[in-house]
Amino acid sequence: MFSFFKKKPPAPEPAPAEATPAPAAAEPPEPAGRNWLRNPFGGSKPEAAPDPPPAEVAAEVAAEPAARTGWVDRLKLGLRKTGSSITTVFTGTRIDEALYEQLEEALLMADAGVKATTVLLDDLRRRVKEARATEPAAVRGLLVDAIADMLRPLQKPLVIGEHKPTVVMVAGVNGAGKTTSIGKLTRHLAAHQASVLLAAADTFRAAAREQLAVWADRNYVETISQQGGDPAAVAFDAVNAGRARGKDVVLVDTAGRLPTQLHLMEELKKIRRTLVKADTAGTGVPHEVLLVIDGNTGQNALMQVKAFDDAIGLTGLIVTKLDGTAKGGVLAAIAQERPVPVYFIGVGEKLEDLETFDAREFAQALLG
Length: 368
Known about the structure:
Layout: E1 6-7, H1 54-67, H2 69-78, H3 80-87, H4 97-109, H5 114-131, H6 136-151, E2 159-160, E3 166-172, H7 178-191, E4 196-200, H8 206-219, E5 222-225, H9 231-244, E6 249-253, H10 262-277, E7 288-294, H11 299-312, E8 316-320, H12 330-337, E9 342-346, E10 354-356, H13 359-366
Parallel strand pairs: 1-2, 3-6, 3-7, 4-5, 4-6, 7-8, 8-9
Antiparallel strand pairs: 9-10
Helix pairs in contact: 2-13, 4-5, 5-6, 5-12, 6-13, 7-8, 9-10, 11-12
């Protein structure tokens, strides 16, 4: 099973004074390129099988791409609106200036942005020259490589478990799918034996608290909330409660707002400052600050990333609703102008429609 996040194991608990601690067993090395997650958060399972030897680990890793086949198929289907205008450029028979002009127009229409489009086309021309390509079909493959290389800086796993609790603050405008994304993350964290506490710091909208409560009930997790209370106070209480109750993760939902609503952006800054004050151990709370953006909004999503990053210092993105847009090229614009890591992308409403971001998978699906 492909994990949604990468986890650093917690330090082992000290043995009682009268007992002689047994030497720690060596763990198998983490395979390159894989989000290694085996019995996270130190939880023990009854009659758990021992970790496989390296040969079995290699076999398990080799089988992993097959497990993501269904996801890649859904991603291709979801990106069809974005990719169709780009792929039609390669139906001709010649590699000439007209092809590059059509490709430039298609990338701009996909909201890749002027800067990213210029960089991609310059890189593509170099690749075509070096490969001595003569057919448009070959140029298509080289463009996949160019897009994958451009997006690779955005590919980074979300680390959970380095601190206890790991505090994750989640922001986003109304309608981007913020609370739903929090629910999906909660489901996967809980499925991997992580104890989760939800903080309903969106106190302005009763529906947000109710929606978060539904996800909490589905996943059997606790929620800290106050009707009409101060959002920063709810976040502060949640961190203290998470620490006192030994929770692994505290997810803080915040009120949806537009970057132009300066008074509400100030409220976000206040929540972040309050979380820092709750960090009595000095571990760097909040450990993650995520922004959920709607892929349908194209270049406006880039503006949101810049505004929220300037205000609260983003550490990662969740890009939703890529299945309903022709503007999926905005990830290229983000990579060039504000390369905040993309932890997850979504192409639907189902639980399995939110997955970790992989640059090459995305590039291949885009032009698939």
